[in-house]
Design a protein that fits this description.
mainly beta; four-stranded antiparallel β-sheet; 0% helix; 144 residues
Amino acid sequence: YGSHWSSVSSEELNTPIRSLAAAGSDLIAGTQGAGVVWKRPLSEMITPASVSKEAFVFGYKLEQNYPNPFNPSTVIRYQLPENTLVILKVYDILGKEVVTLVDQLQNAGSHSVTFNTLNLPIGVYFYRLEAGRYHNTRKLLLLK
């Protein structure tokens, strides 16, 4: 209830909290009315044993596959800040779809997918993540 929070202003916390935001290693709380702002370190509220790092995903992120270059498989990692429909596809250099790796509703957090190349020829490929309004494309290189 805010009794152990550090005040950024001189006013008491006597109104409901209307907004929360993470800023670096602090949680910031804003109240209704006079614009009172409070902050408290996340480390005082959460212990590493009780919450995994996936709980702190603050935005969409598509990471570079690893290893890259690769043969015969590589791992693609991405993060979702909310539950959303995820589509992850691989395309060849001409833009032709090679494979759909993911096409489903997924929970918020960190995810990974292994791309096995099967009988694909060596060359440059692209993988594209579509999740909500987020779209990102990255390049990968298959060597044999």
